[in-house]
Specification:
Mean pLDDT: 89
Protein name: TatD DNase family protein
Bound molecules: zinc ion
Radius of gyration: 19 Å
Distance between the termini: 48 Å
CATH architecture: Alpha-Beta Barrel
CATH superfamily: Metal-dependent hydrolases
CATH topology: TIM Barrel
InterPro entries: Metal_Hydrolase, TatD-like, UCP005295
Helix content: 25-40%
GO molecular function: hydrolase activity, acting on ester bonds
Strand content: 5-15%
Number of helices: 12
Structural class: alpha/beta
Low-confidence stretches: 1-14
């Protein structure tokens, strides 16, 4: 168990930990939304890693407005350890049920990846039970991969369940979304890739996430997809992301927000696209790293039909999910966020 997990008084979100030691550029670009929005007019975005269960309806509205048309919600650690199997079942059900419905109500196509996260792999009695129920969820509609799995503290238990889930992915013919550790990232990333290859996975079916400048070259050289998380303070800043694309080009690279309950930004993609545009990156390269590459990688699941979202998802806000609507007590859909008066 990691330090943070031992100390229950110090909640520590999975994406909000000590930095990777690579400083973000001090150059800040202060720009109003209306200004950078101009730069990305007509672009559409696919965020392949965002935890919407932790986000609000304001986020959904802002994301849609900024051009995000589809997203992938990986299953992960919810901030405190689950105490029983039922919590896992309810969480997995919400990813293919209520949260997907909620997303659709804001015009965003919602996909997910299913898996046992690395932190909770360390609770072996519970991990065993989770492995038994996972096959019930991975074949459901809209499940585009096994994820996010991999290493956190790089323990023996983490390795055991990582290997088992790689086998599950192979059997189900699903891509794999790999979370790389915050601590000792380089070694953890190398180890994750070596094990995936050892299990006979095709690297073009494996998305290595949370890369940085120290890991990207080996990931790309070995044929894997390299995902980058734009996350304030602890992961990549988007100035650094621009430089990575300048250096390596757009092939097999994808950008995500990994927004969750920590201080994170669900608009990381549109903002990064705007910054890339300002820095002279071509529209085609921007399209690849903020949209198309994620579709190509996770589309191998056979679950992504771009015609569902490429020209916008139609929103039917009077629809219900198991009898429930997101509109409470006669609320009207599409409330203007710019209005001072709240009615
Ligand atoms: Zn995540």
């Amino acid at each position: 168990m990691c330090q943070h997990c031992k100390d229950s008084s110090a909640p520590n979100p999975s994406h909000f930990e000590e930095g990777d030691g690579l400083a973000n550029s001090p150059a800040h670009v202060e720009m109003a939304w209306s200004e950078y929005n101009e730069l990305i007019q007509g672009m559409r975005f696919f965020d392949p890693h965002i935890h919407m269960v932790s986000r609000t309806t304001d986020d959904y509205q802002a994301m849609r407005k900024a051009g995000i048309v589809a997203l992938i919600e990986p299953s992960f650690w919810v901030g405190q350890p689950r105490t029983g199997l039922s919590s896992f079942k309810d969480y997995y059900s919400s990813l293919v049920g209520w949260e997907r419905f909620r997303s659709s109500q804001f015009g965003i196509k919602h996909y997910c990846t299913m898996g046992l996260n690395s932190r909770e792999a360390n609770n072996e009695p519970l991990a065993e039970q989770v492995m038994e129920i996972l096959p019930l969820y991975i074949y459901k509609e809209g499940v585009v991969g096994i994820g996010e799995i991999g290493f956190d503290d790089q323990t023996a238990a983490e390795e055991k369940y990582y290997r088992l889930q790689l086998e599950l992915a192979k059997e189900a013919k699903l891509p794999v979304q790999i979370h790389t550790p915050h601590r000792d990232k380089k070694r953890g990333t190398e180890r994750s890739m070596a094990i995936a290859l050892e299990h006979g996975l095709d690297p073009s079916w494996v998305i290595i996430d949370h890369n940085n400048e120290e890991t990207v070259k080996n990931v790309l050289d070995q044929g894997f997809y390299a995902a980058f998380t734009i996350y304030p303070f602890t992961k990549m800043g988007n100035e650094r992301m621009v430089k990575v694309v300048e250096q390596y080009g757009p092939e097999r690279i994808m950008v995500n927000s990994a927004a969750d309950w920590g201080i994170s930004d669900p608009l990381a993609l549109p903002k990064t696209a705007a910054l890339m545009k300002m820095r002279g990156i071509s529209d085609e390269a921007i399209r690849l790293v903020t949209y198309q590459n994620a579709i190509d990688a996770f589309g191998k699941s056979g679950q992504i039909d771009v015609s569902d979202f490429e020209s916008g998802l139609s929103v039917e806000k009077t629809e219900k999910f198991h009898g429930n609507s997101i509109l409470r007590g006669g609320q009207q859909p599409d409330v203007s966020k710019d209005s001072l008066v709240i009615q």
